[in-house]
Amino acid sequence: MLSFGVRGLAAWAPGVEGEAAWRSWSKAPFALPAEGAPDVPFLPALLRRRCSPLSKTMLQVAWAACPESERASVRAVFSSRHGENRESMAHFEQLVAGQPLSPTRFTHTVHNAQASIFSIATGNRCASSAIAGERDGFGAGILEALGHLQREPSRPTLLVVGDVPAADFCRDLTGEPAATFAVALLLAAGDAASQPAGSTARRVGYELLTAEAPGAPAERPAALEFVRWWSGDAPVLELQGPRARHRFTRLS
């Protein structure tokens, strides 16, 4: 079993904002709205204008989970199943119609757009990753973040997982309810000696297990199931992905 510390956790969805709102949602989950984006007033106006709804949503939780004093020095992992799918589809439609492409809008279509804006806004030049794990984006993000912690245990890693609904053209192919959400975890190496002075990190054990059978589409994203577990008192959470199971255990 691997272990890591969670020093910060934040989540955002339209109409579900703040720790108290997420505790209430965790006790009685309901379908999240498909559309909406936070205001992100902490970003300079020039960067705000470059942000898509997905970028705003993911950066909102990144700021909330990571203290200002550490934003320029953390490693970062951004994970999204669809990424800027809707922006890309708009470009394809313009190409088919023979229309010129917008250079400004093109910047939204790359999968590392959120990692890039985070780096620019915070002055962070540390290593970062942008991954697409299909339906296993949260589990893949955890594995990627643990790899960063293994590489540099003294430096925390910020994991941000989020999505907005896929473009209408392919939404029926995803097998999931349309929703806008993002979750961020500030992770630290499991060794207590590597934690900063005064850290209140809660330690979590992690195991990657072989999938017992191909996983059916989940009722809600795995990152939100982790938020529910985090807000409750169950000792273990097991998430079934399409190819693997991810087991989390509360450690004393």
Written account of the structure:
The chain has helices spanning 19-27, 45-50, 53-65, 85-96, 103-106, 113-122, 137-151, 222-231, and strands at 2-13, 16-17, 75-79, 128-131, 157-163, 181-189, 202-210, 236-240, 244-250. Helix 3 (53-65) crosses helix 6. The chain is built from eight helices and nine strands. It is 31% helix and 24% strand. It is α+β, with helices and mostly antiparallel strands and 252 residues long. Strands 1, 2, 3, 4, 5, 6, 7, 8 and 9 form a nine-stranded mixed beta sheet that branches.
Strand tally is 9
Instruction: Give the overall shape.
Output: globular
Termini separation comes to: 14 Å
Helix tally equals 8
SS-based class = alpha+beta
What is the radius of gyration computed over CA atoms, rounded to a whole number of angstroms?
18 Å
What is the arithmetic mean of pLDDT? Answer: 88
Helical content, roughly?
Answer: 25-40%
Poorly predicted segments? none
Helix-strand sequence: EEHHHEHHHEHEEEHEE
